[in-house]
Amino acid sequence: GKGIAVFTSGGDSQGMNAAVRAVVRMGIYLGCKVFFIREGYQGMVDGGENIIEANWSSVSCIIHKGGTIIGSARCADFREKEGRLKAAKNLVQKGITNLVVIGGDGSLTGADLFRQEWGSLLDELLGRNEITAEQREKYKVLQIAGLVGSIDNDFCGTDMTIGTDSALHRIIEAVDAIVSTAYSHQRTFIMEVMGRHCGYLALVAALTSEADYVFIPEDPADVNWPEVLCDKLVQERSVGQRLNIIIVSEGAIDRNGKPITAELIKKVVVENLNQDTRITVLGHVQRGGNPSAFDRVLGCRMGAEAVMALMEANEHTKPCVISLEGNQAVRLPLMECVQQTKAVAQAMEDKNWELAVTLRGKS
Ligand code: ADP
């Protein structure tokens, strides 16, 4: 059977384990040899114990766990050709010519580059007598399927990334908890949530928690936002509300591109309204904990589809990313989605928010 390896890379997210599990079991079911690569690209470069064959039971009891049991890492070595040569040699030695990469746009970019270079990497290894001519021929094509694990939902091409739904659950629980204590003391709370270029978590959390105000990067606030915000808070209190909740995405900005931080909002509220105001930064709590049912199902479906895509691929097939479109798992060209995602981030940097939203919407 074919050799498939699965690894998780970049930032972790809930539901990655479900995806790993599905890759292993679908692969075994279809007669493949499936390997784990531990610690992302670092494990691929280092080889040895980092690349081990998986069996059916090695993925038992992981579907409910957050994070990734096979570890994730950022890896400088893989950015260098020498690192990728080592990685290629390690894969050839194990007979691995199919990779399922679970990560963000950086990890997927690395995988695409690796696939493009694969032939020349093998030539170089052959030239150095590190692989045989037989191996060069037998393992001449590397197939790639990508899955997007990210709590931010910041990837173009998929309706939901693996981990987003769980992060939302975590945020909602936190807001609900804050609401009860805020009520008792008639306080105003500013809650900072993750999302550097993408306000999805903040926006959906605000909608579903009845927050009074939300700041997101895609819709920068007018420069007079302090006035507008204070009017809104006063109005809510005047109709009998005992608390206010303001949700701010970590990437929130105003029309001039100036960051709107939780501290800044607090200063505005305290100076203008003299309300008892507190900040809660949710931080990595959002990435932790058990995956939701949705993320478990998403991970399972994406993982299974990735294996099917690899099995059906031939040497002309381009790397794909498995995406959720409506309720369907679909295969999209990996690099086009990555490039679109990067274009959105660039448009945001350029303060061209309309373009950013249009580009994201198009995908
Ligand atoms: P994410 O996958 O979450 O976007 P990073 O951008 O940190 O996270 O990428 C994770 C890893 O992927 C990097 O540490 C590096 O090993 C690899 N990688 C990212 N971009 C490239 C690239 N252009 N070339 C080679 N490897 C890359």
UniProtKB/TrEMBL annotation:
It comes from Leptinotarsa decemlineata (Colorado potato beetle). Belongs to the phosphofructokinase type A (PFKA) family. ATP-dependent PFK group I subfamily. Eukaryotic two domain clade 'E' sub-subfamily. Belongs to the phosphofructokinase type A (PFKA) family. ATP-dependent PFK group I subfamily. Eukaryotic two domain clade "E" sub-subfamily. Substrate binds at S150, I151, D152, R187, M194, G195, R196, E250, R278, H284, V285, Q286, R287. Catalyzes the phosphorylation of D-fructose 6-phosphate to fructose 1,6-bisphosphate by ATP, the first committing step of glycolysis. Mg(2+) binds at D105. Residues 4-309 form the Phosphofructokinase domain. The lineage of its organism: Eukaryota, Metazoa, Ecdysozoa, Arthropoda, Hexapoda. The gene is PFK. Residues 1-363 are annotated as: N-terminal catalytic PFK domain 1. It is found in: Cytoplasm. ATP binds at G11, R74, C75, G104, D105, G106, S107. This is ATP-dependent 6-phosphofructokinase. The active site is at D152 (proton acceptor). Homotetramer.
